[in-house]
Write a structure and sequence with these properties.
Shape: elongated
Strand content: 15-25%
Radius of gyration: 47 Å
Order of helices and strands: EEEEEEHHHHEE
Structural class: alpha+beta
Largest sheet: 4 strands, mixed
């Protein structure tokens, strides 16, 4: 029975048999056990100093690890982004393609019909407010300070809203910070009671504020002189 022997590289280095010595046969496989690739001889050839065996005398087949490394290095060299590793399609994680109509698929962006004219006007045109369905500026200005555009309920709510404020006067000192306020006031000197009345629209809040009687001196108060 015939025996087919495959040349195997076990010496140091990588690649097929090259140089000015050795013989290869057409179709003969060589396995580089160091580099991991397979080489097939293209022709019969005996190496000599004038015509050495070279890498060009072989067809090279890369192992999977070497092929992966080569492809990744090519992607890096070409500065390709992550999209180069994605499949085409319209689902999450894929890259959509422009169709024959020069548009993206309608499942991504629905068909859009650009408006090329307004009221039969094309190009650089001036469109008036009334042509866009609006009102004239004079009509708008007439109603700027009016509540005619509000509903009855909206008007009622605005009517029930009151602005109030507290200002400094001769009987009161105004401070510039909360810390200054806390340092200047009598602790727990006021008593507060709040009523939230939903019978009003919007609801009405009533505040009852009084001075704590235990914090002031009255006609029957006793000042203790202390002991020594």
């Amino acid at each position: 029975m015939a025996i087919i022997q495959i040349k195997r590289r076990t010496s140091s280095g990588t690649g097929p048999l090259v140089g000015s010595s050795g013989t290869i046969k057409a179709g003969e496989p060589l396995v580089d056990l160091n580099g991991g690739n397979l080489f097939i001889s293209k022709q019969d050839k005996t190496g000599s100093s004038g015509n050495p065996i070279a890498l060009a005398d072989y067809i090279e087949y890369l192992s999977k690890p070497n092929a992966d490394t080569l492809m990744n290095s090519k992607i890096t060299a070409l500065s390709l982004g992550t999209a180069s590793k994605k499949n085409t399609g319209t689902t999450n994680g894929t890259v959509p393609l422009i169709g024959a109509n020069n548009k993206l698929p309608t499942s991504i962006i629905p068909d859009v019909a650009p408006v090329t004219s307004v009221n039969s006007k094309t190009g650089a045109v001036t469109i008036t407010l009334s042509e866009l369905g609006g009102v004239a500026a004079s009509t708008y200005n007439t109603h700027v300070s009016s509540n005619l555009h509000l509903t009855a309920e909206q008007r009622s709510r605005l009517t029930n809203v009151y602005n109030s404020s507290v200002h400094a006067s001769n009987g009161m000192t105004e401070v510039s910070s909360l810390t200054a306020f806390n340092n200047a006031v009598l602790g727990n000197g006021l008593v507060l009671y709040t009523i939230f009345n939903e019978a009003y629209n919007p609801p009405k809040i009533t505040y009852y504020i009084g001075i704590d009687k235990d914090k002031i001196i009255g006609p029957t108060s006793v000042i203790d002189g202390g002991t020594y």
